[in-house]
Each structure stands twice: as C-alpha cells, then as structure tokens.
Amino acid sequence: MAAIAGVDAFDLRFPTSRELDGSDAMNPDPDYSAAYVVLRTDDGPDGHGFAFTIGRGNDVCVAAIRAYAPLVVGLDLDQVIGDLGGFARRLVHDSQLRWLGPETGAVHMAAGAIINAAFDLAARTAGRPLWAYLAELSPEQLVDLVDWRYLTDALTPDEALDLLRRAEPGRAERAALLREHGYPAYATSPGWLGYSDDKMVRLAREAVADGFDLIKLKVGADLADDVRRMRLAREAVGPGVRIAVDANQRWDVDDAVRWMRELAPFDPYWIEEPTAPDDVLGHAAIRRAIAPIRVATGEHMANRVIAKQLLRSGALDVIQLDACRVGGVPENLAILLLAAKYRVPVCPHAGGVGLCELVQHLAMFDYLAVSGSTEGRAVEYVDHLHEHFTDPVRVRGGRYLAPEAPGFSAELRPETFERYGYPHGTAWSPAATGGSTG
Amino acid sequence: MAAIAGVDAFDLRFPTSRELDGSDAMNPDPDYSAAYVVLRTDDGPDGHGFAFTIGRGNDVCVAAIRAYAPLVVGLDLDQVIGDLGGFARRLVHDSQLRWLGPETGAVHMAAGAIINAAFDLAARTAGRPLWAYLAELSPEQLVDLVDWRYLTDALTPDEALDLLRRAEPGRAERAALLREHGYPAYATSPGWLGYSDDKMVRLAREAVADGFDLIKLKVGADLADDVRRMRLAREAVGPGVRIAVDANQRWDVDDAVRWMRELAPFDPYWIEEPTAPDDVLGHAAIRRAIAPIRVATGEHMANRVIAKQLLRSGALDVIQLDACRVGGVPENLAILLLAAKYRVPVCPHAGGVGLCELVQHLAMFDYLAVSGSTEGRAVEYVDHLHEHFTDPVRVRGGRYLAPEAPGFSAELRPETFERYGYPHGTAWSPAATGGSTG
User: Fold this and answer.
1) Distance between CA A268 and CA A318 in Å, rounded?
2) Which EC number applies (chains A, B) (predicted)?
3) Contact A67 B54 (CB under 8 A)
4) Would residue A305 count as lying in a domain?
5) Domain tally for chain B?
6) I need a labelling partner for A296 at 20 to 30 A (CA). Which of A252, A269, A357, A431 fits?
C-alpha cells in the first residue's frame, strides 16, 4: 500500500533585493523566497508545493510546514488522492495549529503549501496538468473539495452545484480555445518603484510591443513621483492600453481617495491594495469615493471569510486571489465560486517566485469550469525566476499558454536547491553577498 | 551604554489536555503553551513576554520570535524605553516579516510577545506595575505609542487626545478605588465542555459562592447537550447571576441564530465567538437576528483593523481583547481607544497560561486613563497555572486585586522552565506521557 513516506521542507531564497526587482511602496527590498515542500512517496511521483515569502520569515513558514508533517507522514496515498478535500480540512482544522490563525498567517500558508503539493501529486498521478485535472472533476466532486464552514450565509453547496452545472455547456470548446490562444496576461515588470523613469518607460513600451494591453505601476511612496511616472507611462503607451496602479497597502482610506483623485486624469484602470487587506469596510468606502476607477485586492486576503465579505459587500471590482496565501486549491475554489456568484472578475496575483506557474492553472480551470469567461480577467505576469522551474510558464503575445506537463508546475530544478538554499547555498556565501548573509 | 544583550526564546508546554481543562467545541484537547521571550540586559532588569498557544505550533511562534531577534539585539536600552511606540512599529513594519501577515498569525503574535516584553522591561525599570506605568503617561505620550496606520478613517490622533484628556479628571480617585476594591472578574472555570454535568454544576455554585456574578459556559458541539447544561446552570445559580456562553467560532451565521434561539429561554448574557473571528458582516448579521442577547468577540481578532470594523459597524456589544494575540500594548491601546470612541465595553479574554496575569494590567489602565469606567466590564478569570508565575494574579470576591510588583506580571518561575520545556522537560518525559510526547 503506497503511503506518503516523508514531508521534506526547504528554505530557498533568491537575492532579488540586489536589483530592486519587486520593489514597491511597502516592500522596498524583497528577497523572493519559497518555503518549499515535497510530499515524498516511495514509488510514483512526488508532490511539490511552496509558500511564497519575501525573505526574513521564510524559516518561520518552513517551521510551520514541519509542524504539520506528523499529520501527513504515513497517510495512505490512495486515500489522500481520493479525498483531497478531507485531507485539506484535516490540516486546516487541526485545533492546536489553528490557534495560530485561525486560517491566516504562517500556519495557513504552510497548510496551503502542503495541500497544493497534494494536488500536484494527484494531478501527476493522473498524468494531467492541474487545470485539466480539476476541470474534469464532476460538480459534486468539486463541491466536496470545499470547506463550507463560514460560507453558507453567502453561498451554499447547492448554489455552488448550480453554478458549476451551468458552466458545463461549452467546456470542450473553451478547452480548445484555451489550448490554441492561451489565457490573458498582464504585465507588472515595468512598474517596480525602484526602477528609474527611463527604465520604466522602456519596459512599458516593450510590454505593449510584446502584446500586453494591461500593465501595472507601483505607487504610494510619493504623490509627485507617482503623478510624474503615471504621466510618462500614459504618454509612452497611449490611451488604448490599460494602466493599473498598485499601492501595496500603503494608505489609509483618506490617503487613497486623495491620491487617486490626482492620478485620475491619467485614467488608471484599477487601484490595487489601497489599504489594509482585511479592511472590508475601508475598501468599500474607497470604492464609493473614486468610482469609476476600479478597486482591486486579494493577494494578501487571508482566507475565504475575507473574500466572502469583500465580494458580498461590494468592496471591490476585481478580486486577485493568490495561489499560495490561502489554504491551497480547495480554498481558492471557494473563492472562485464566490466570485462567480457575485459576478466579480478574478485577476490572480502572480510574480514572486513560482506564483505565475501555480496560478495560471486556477485561472484556466475557472475559465473551463466555473465562470466560463475570460472577460475582464487577466493573470499577472512578471518575467522573473521562471528558469528555476522544470515546467516554466510560457507567455506569448500577452497570453499564458496552457501547461501540458502533468501536475501543478510547482517543481524547482535540482540545481536551484544547491544555489539558493538558505543560508548555506552558494548564492548566500560571503563572496556572493559581500560578507553578509542578509 | 546599556543595550539589549540577547533575545532568548523558549518553548514551554503544559499537558492540560490530560484533564480536559480548557476543552471547548473547537479545541477539544489544548495543551496550554507559551512561546516565551526574555529580553536580556547585562545589568538592570530583563523583560519578559510570551505568545500563548495551545500546543502544536508553539515551536512556530518560537521560530518567529527568533526571526525578529536580529532586529532587537544590540538596541540601546534607553532608546527602546524612550520610544516604545517606535520600537513596536519597527518590528511590525519590517517589510519582509510583515509579508507573513500582514499583522496576523505567528509573526504578529511573536512581535506582540517581544513588544510586551519591552513594556515589562520599561515598567520594571521605572519600578511600577504596568497598569500604573501606563496610566502615568501623558495623553501625548500615549498617542505616540499607537501605530495610526489604517486607523484614521475611524479615529484620529486628535480625537484620541481628546478622549484621553476627558478621562484625566478623577483618575486619582479611581486609582484609590482600584487599589481598595480591585477590578471585576468573571469565571469560566465551571464551563469547559469536557466536564461532566455534576462537575459543571458544582463549579458554577462555587463560583457564585466565591463572589462571581458572571460565569461562562462553553457551547457549540451539540444543541441538546447545550440546552441541558444551560438549564442546569441556570437552576444552579438562579436568575440573578449572568451566564455567558461561548461557541469558540464553531458556527456559520444561520447556526448561531438557530442555536441562540434555543438557548434564549435561559437568558444568556452574551454569545461569544459565534463564528469566524474576522467575519465582521457575519457578526453584525447575528447580532441583528438575536438581539437583545449580546454578541461578544475579540480573542482571535488579529489586529486593530478588524477591531475597527467590528466596532464601527455595530457588529458587537462587547469586545474581548487579548493581551498576546495582537501587536502588544500599543495595538491594545489602539483597541481600547476605539472601544471608548464607539462606547463598547471591553471584557478582556484571559485564561490559558498567563493571559490573566497580563490582561488585568490593560483593563486597570483602561479604567484609570481611557474609558474611566468598569460598568459592563469584567476580565475573564480561570484558576489554572497561576502558580508558575512570580507575580500571580490575586482574585478575591470575584475581583482582580491590583498587582503591585513592578512590570507586566509576565515572568515564569525558574523551575517551570525545567519541568515544562518542550520536548525535553520532565513533564514531557516518556514516563509522564505514557510513552508519547504528544
């Protein structure tokens, strides 16, 4: 009888702060990192997953993965794959570990990494890329994946079944379109706050030339700088390209309103993370004040309870789920279902390390089996660190091509472990860091 | 120049699950634990603090304390004590560690433990118990402690100054009353879900005989059991004693309403944690449906952003801050100020290990310097594990007596470290655990 033989956790960090890649108003010097987990089996494929962090604290997520390991090691593989929803709930509901959340912070990110690794394992075992594996489940099987606790005042299992059944017609046609044309992407690479004006303008033009019709700029540190950069970007790309802006939680409610009124002449498409990610009422107030500029948030949304409130209270125009922040595929499925019910488009957060690789699967699955639409939707794209993955994203003409390899595209290359293991990898040696290990 | 010479972290666990002390509908077998931190100085007093957990995952909080240590070791002691608000903000705003929240979960609990230890150190250095140390700060000094980010749409620094100035008259008289009569307490010891009916009834009667006029029962696992236990408790204590009930987040919104309608005939004083702690809209819906039964929550409220929304949206009748869950004294000061503005009484969460010791200081400070009132207020009291502290709480006639020793009452006795250190303490030896270490 095959079992999960081990849960191996790794602290991997990339010294991205040296180039200010990823710099924004709240995160001036991120070192993109993965608290990486392998569900090891004795025969058959392993399962890969990770939590994404930006440096310090990656060790805390690794410790949290190890705290869950005793709940996972020795489980029968067929039972895990046969009841992935039950597997996820056993981790998330563990009463002692739950106390550190509930369902938020390091333990929830760790549970999400392990749960995503189990989905990777299941899809590999089935020989299917995750988006196809999920889209081939029945509505009943999908509903069984979800943890319904705390959801039923907004969405019941029966409503979810109806939603999923309504999305069944046309699925094969959509799958064919997806395989031919891919899924829309948008480009954040031009807009990091640490880049010079010249570099930003050059990268914005390149993104448009590459086929993107939505780009994003980081804002929020200095209003005059933001007005200048937004004007330069608008002049560079012209009126036909959408420009979103992202404050990364930097503002209070009044700051957000004041700032966006100054940026409004340059036609921002959305303002992302204007304030604290769990401030449902704050986002709603900002949205009322700055309409028709869209409000977007979600990358730091801890769980489905925050998503539920953001969606049902009309606090946002766009929801941006993250593949690694919440409790894995089942909780993101709950968020996709809620978004479909409240008719809010999902534009997933990506970038970092591996977030593009993961979240493309969820967006493609949503297109096939939940919302059935790509209208108003796009997955964030940043051209960093893909070379470390065995099945890296392929983006062509501003669209993600559908991955075809089995699994969740989460696996890192063996040589990456040696170079970027923290603190002993060669990238963190005194010679590489100028004497400091960060 | 005196400095913080070290940040020492300890994993301490008490095997409370062996007696079902602390058992409730969500937490059937807690092992009360402390991720304990000592800010070590070379001369002068050390600072003590801790995060409270219920067993597994305590190591994750210890790892998070260690992740913050490099930000703290070597800091000049006078500068830390002279700007405790700035010290707290430097920890909470650390951009890389913040990514694991923001301001929630293991990293926020760890930051809170360290920040509380710094307040312990400051109060010891001043030779004052923390409640008195805080109450002797000026309104301006108190306002400087608070992290105002994300608060100003609900409460501005100027409004807070006004609130604090209005509470200045009568402070000396209130301090004298506090020293003479103590601060109201309520009793949870009778109501753990794992106790037999007989034990619950006996303990409820004892609590009333000891002077408590508010007791609390755990509910939420089985409706018929809860109706029976509530009836027995009401018969035991009579109509004049208030009985609160606590579901520990067990329900969806509709469950909470249905359940409380069944319990209503026995006159429950409040329903505590009816659903997910960050479900602001859910609590508001429950409150509307079950009025006049009060809704209480807050022990798992991650931060001031959730508190702000709960208070301003009318989602609750009672707010229950926790000394260890949020970012230490400064964030709890923000919550006390918000509660005063929205005129919601604060009944702090306690119990566990050391929560009573800490939170009594915050309630007494609130009485002297913020709300100026004890009306409708009481601090939870559970008679467990106080013997481990060097300055344990003293509860007489249903009231907490004001602590007089300098500091935050957070220090554990040296022999406790040896016995309850995890996993090598004697309480966790194979002989003590029957062969398992939990």
Assistant:
1) 14
2) 4.2.1.68
3) no
4) yes
5) 1
6) A357
